[in-house]
């Protein structure tokens, strides 16, 4: 009887963990979907809402490492000053895996469809759960040739 009780409790705990992971994955996917909507509307501040609003945010790209939310936003505004340069964004998420209780590692592809020439590349994101929501704390994006 005691073994049955322990097994039942263990199965219940594992089920709760699986539900929590599914919910967390859904929240992260919803945030990524919202990023695409914001980008395609031309609202870079809205796009950046999923990023950790901290000077400790890290963005790695072809120009090196940028530290901080505001600096990352400023770089986006410089690199994509108008709708023609921003184009239409699409993500293809390849992996979304937990790396601990409050972190996820996401790998995906991005596609920018633009009249001035399409751009595509890969990205990896580290997401952290805060008291309020999931936020990106590190982004590494690279353009494919």
TrEMBL record:
Q: Which domain of life is it from?
A: Bacteria
> Is the keyword Signal in the record?
yes
**Residues annotated as domain DUF4440:** 29-136
Query: Could you tell me the keywords of this UniProt record?
Result: Signal
The signal sequence is 1-20
What is this protein identified as? Answer: Nuclear transport factor 2 family protein
